[in-house]
Design a protein that fits this description.
InterPro entries: Mur-like_cat_sf, Mur_ligase_C, Mur_ligase_C_dom_sf, Mur_ligase_cen, Mur_ligase_N, MurE/MurF_N, UDP-N-AcMur-Glu-dNH2Pim_ligase
Protein name: UDP-N-acetylmuramyl-tripeptide synthetase
Shape: globular
Bound molecules: ligand UAG, adenosine-5'-triphosphate
Structural class: alpha/beta
GO molecular function: UDP-N-acetylmuramoylalanyl-D-glutamate-2,6-diaminopimelate ligase activity
Distance between the termini: 49 Å
Strand content: 15-25%
Organism: Cellulomonas iranensis
Subcellular location: Cytoplasm
């Protein structure tokens, strides 16, 4: 059976001739003659194959996709596009199309097969280390002011209109993206916003789409296990700002990477400076001239000066200055995508809560502390999240957190230091340990905690995340704020290769119910 992702396809895809594809992309061929063969879909994962598909078999980091060609053919693939190494693995009797780098062709071929669906929608792509999800939802809210139906793709979900499914990752594989663009169009959506991760850019997942507008939030230390160093990470992000991928860009220039991107990008770029008073404001097209972080924690008011010098009163519906930045970027992106400025400002200011992004799970009152779930999982994001919560916390700030396994080890002690510096009470626990020993990840965090707080006062360790949340609720008083960071909306926790159903919000609510019962 085709996987849930494989089923996210248009109901009425065009049938394309394999020989037309060969001609359009100057492919070499081997195996049986494909003249007369048609295909109606493209897949890169054998489990996603539907009858009538072209299977794109790429050399992966772990395995060559052509190893699964027989499985793909058994599921109904009519031809295989691969490289010379892969060709030898395709079962005899199946037409083989050859390219030097089939991964780079997966998106363009899928777009071609589906009649360039991205060209029939207004498309916005958002990249950067932090703030992609938030900005994407803000942009979607603004697009909905003028588009009756929209789609939004990213870490949290794949949504078309009111229908959503869980997302396997931040940016889906190239053929899935093209299928979603076509499905969105078929279902009447006229605009689509997607997060674009650095992995996606490095692995060509958005090739085949030329976005109307792309946005950049910031670049901070993350994913160096994959990109090697900050320069490599920056280069991956910059790919989105090329003429093949985007018509125009909007770049937040608060950090040096944004400044460099705005200077170097070969497409027209509008710059946005969101830290009022910073020297970069002088040269930016759009400037946040002042911002008032709301002490009620509900959001912030800010003034945005446009390139014509006019100042507009705007609002961010989420707390903290980072969300002023996300809201300002979203307004400019949506405006560049055709939404009138006033409508964009108004819609972003009233955007709904985003799952796992500063999500208020329990409101302060009736003896309960304010309980928040946030996705911050980098030192910078954690710093900003804790700084945003401090002004809305009359009592102590209680932080529950960990750090991912099988990912950048260097950040663990730094996460420890940040927590110890900015929170009052720490409960150090597990995030997604993956194949690593959870205790050693916690130990690395605690090493950083000790640098700042050698006596480990008010520092606790919990061997399960659910227990950590229960501990935090027990420790917190009504004036305190409990913030659980790192996993946000995630519906699972990966331990020793197994994905367990797990969600911070649900656990928070269950822990509160448990405490209620105990005190009833
Ligand atoms: C580093 C990375 O992104 N790797 C992705 C990449 O792996 P790969 O090319 O090495 O693939 P592989 O596992 O060697 O397999 C090779 C080929 O065989 C195919 N295959 C494999 C097995 C099978 O049974 N059938 C089959 O057809 C695969 O689909 C693939 O095309 O292609 C695979 C197939 O699409 C992805 O599953 C895999 O994502 C892995 C699971 C992953 O964890 N990716 C993360 C790091 C990621 O992409 N994250 C970013 C967000 C990061 C962030 O900002 O936080 C994201 O966009 O989600
Ligand atoms: N503009 C920003 N600058 C720095 N940190 C931010 C910004 N926006 C949000 N954050 C912090 O980063 C966390 C992640 O935010 P969000 O989910 O919007 O980013 P993301 O780019 O989608 O992350 P990921 O790629 O890991 O899914 C938030 O919970 C918040 O703490």
């Amino acid at each position: 059976m085709t996987s849930p992702l494989g089923r996210l396809r248009p109901e009425h895809p065009p049938a394309r001739r394999v020989d037309d594809l060969v001609a359009a992309f100057a492919l070499r061929t081997t195996g049986p003659d494909a003249a007369g063969t048609t295909f109606t879909g493209v897949s890169m994962a054998s489990g996603d194959v539907a009858p009538g598909d072209l299977f794109v078999a790429v050399p992966g980091l772990k395995v060559h996709g052509a190893r699964f060609a027989a499985d793909a053919v058994a599921r109904g693939a009519v031809a295989v596009l691969t490289d010379d190494e892969g060709a030898a693995l395709v079962p005899a009797g199946t037409p083989v199309l050859l390219a030097d780098d089939p991964r780079l062709l997966a998106g363009p071929v899928a777009a071609w097969a589906l009649g360039d669906p991205g060209e029939r929608l207004v498309t916005v792509g958002v990249t950067g280390t932090n703030g992609k999800t938030t900005t994407t939802y803000f942009v979607d809210a603004a697009l909905r002011a003028v588009h009756e139906r929209t789609a939004v793709l990213g870490t949290v979900e794949l949504r078309i209109g009111d229908d959503a499914v869980e997302s396997p990752r931040t940016t889906v594989e190239a053929p899935v993206l093209q299928s979603l663009l076509a499905l969105a169009r078929e279902r009447g959506a006229t605009a689509l916003t997607t997060e674009v991760s650095s992995h996606a850019l490095a692995l060509g997942r958005v090739l085949g789409t030329r976005f109307d507008v792309v946005g950049f939030t910031n670049l901070q230390r993350d994913h160096l296990d994959f990109h090697g160093d900050m320069e490599g990470y920056f280069r991956a992000k910059s790919r989105l700002f090329s003429p093949e991928q985007a018509r125009r860009g909007v770049v937040v220039v608060d950090d040096v990477w944004g400044q460099r991107l705005a200077e170097e990008a070969p497409i027209p770029v509008e710059s946005v400076a969101t830290r009022a008073g910073s020297p970069v404001c002088a040269g930016a097209d759009w400037v946040v001239v002042d911002a008032d972080v709301g002490l009620d924690g509900v959001g912030s008011r800010f003034s945005l000066r446009g390139p014509d010098g006019r100042v507009h009163e705007a609002h961010s519906p989420l707390p903290g200055l980072v969300n002023v930045s996300n809201a300002a970027l979203a307004v400019v992106l949506a405006h560049a995508a055709g939404v009138p400025l006033g409508a964009a400002i108004d819609a972003v200011g009233r955007a709904h809560a985003i799952p796992g992004r500063m999500e208020r799970v329990v409101e302060r009152g009736d003896g309960w502390p304010l309980c928040l779930v946030d996705y911050a999982h980098t030192p910078d994001a954690l710093t900003l999240a804790l700084e945003a919560v401090r002004p809305i916390t009359p009592g102590r700030l209680v932080l529950v957190y960990g750090s991912d396994g099988d990912r950048d080890r260097g950040k663990r002690p730094i996460m420890g230091q940040v927590g110890a510096r900015l929170a009052d009470v720490l409960v150090v626990t597990d995030e997604n340990p993956r194949s690593e020993d959870p205790a050693s990840i916690r130990a690395a965090i605690l090493e950083g905690v000790r640098d700042v707080r050698p006596d480990l006062a008010d520092v606790h360790e919990a061997t399960s995340r659910a227990q950590a949340i229960r501990d935090a609720l027990r420790l917190a008083g009504p004036d305190d704020t409990v913030i659980v960071t790192g996993k946000g909306h995630e519906p699972t926790q990966e331990i020793a290769g197994v994905f367990h159903r797990y969600n911070d919000r649900d656990v928070f609510l269950a822990a509160r119910a448990e405490r209620r019962e105990q005190h009833a």
